């Protein structure tokens, strides 16, 4: 079988990778307030996010679109990718903040 994943499936995969990066950056921010190197790493990774999005869009074009992609398809892919990444990191944020809130209630 020659299965070709859909745009949404690819955006979910790449968005998960982007979300993992964002979750890692989220952990660096409070640590960076005490350790300057981690603050610098946080800033560098933040600046690198759009470049990573570009790299993921290029990989999507090469691997799943046979080297050619329309602007609207690329825009839709990157929009979905960022949406899935934000959903992923939202779960991380929610789990941290709800555990912090539960600790404060005790």
Question: Can you summarize this structure?
Answer:
The protein is mainly α. The protein has three helices and no strands. It is 85% helix and 0% strand.
Describe the protein in words:
The longest helix has 35 residues, at 71-105. The protein is built from three helices and no strands. It is mainly alpha-helical and 106 residues long. 85% of the residues lie in helices and 0% in strands. Helix 1 runs antiparallel to helix 2, helix 1 (7-32) crosses helix 3 (71-105) and helix 2 (36-64) packs antiparallel against helix 3.
Q: Which percent range describes the beta-strand content?
A: under 5%
End-to-end distance: 56 Å
Treating each run of at least 4 consecutive H or I residues as one helix, how many helices?
3
Number of strands: 0
The pLDDT mean sits at 91
**Secondary structure category:** mainly alpha
CA radius of gyration: 17 Å
What is the H/E string?
Answer: HHH
Which residues sit in consecutive blocks of at least 5 with pLDDT less than 50? none
Shape: elongated
Main β sheet profile: none
What proportion of the residues is helical, as a percent range? over 70%
Could you name the key traits of this structure?
single chain, mainly alpha, elongated
């Amino acid at each position: 079988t020659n299965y070709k994943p859909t745009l949404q499936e690819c955006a979910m995969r790449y968005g998960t990778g982007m979300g993992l990066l964002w979750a890692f950056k989220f952990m660096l921010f409070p640590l960076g307030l005490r350790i300057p190197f981690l603050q610098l790493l946080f800033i560098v990774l933040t600046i690198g996010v759009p470049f990573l999005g570009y790299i993921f869009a290029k990989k999507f074009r090469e691997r799943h679109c046979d080297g050619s992609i329309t602007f609207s398809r690329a825009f839709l892919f990157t929009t979905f990718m960022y949406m899935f990444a934000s959903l992923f990191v939202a779960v991380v944020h929610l789990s941290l903040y709800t555990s912090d809130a539960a600790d404060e209630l005790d």
